[in-house]
Design goal:
Oligomer: single chain
Strand order of the largest sheet: 1-2-3
Structural class: alpha+beta
Shape: globular
Helix content: 25-40%
Length: 71
Amino acid sequence: GLAGGMGPDAAVEPLVSRSPVWASPATSLGDAVAMMTAHRIRHLVVVGADGRVQGVLSLAGAIRALLAVPA
């Protein structure tokens, strides 16, 4: 099986975070990186005002975007 003794056919429900960290589309890139750093996560779910998932921001993608902008 996979790590934790679960096989590939096991449901993901036991592994799902009950308190996910998320951001709104208006969250600044700097704040998003700070949130990911503070919570020690590499991906941040972006949720719109309607409660629907808009996408997922990766820490690597955020850092690439920050480095591409002239200071």
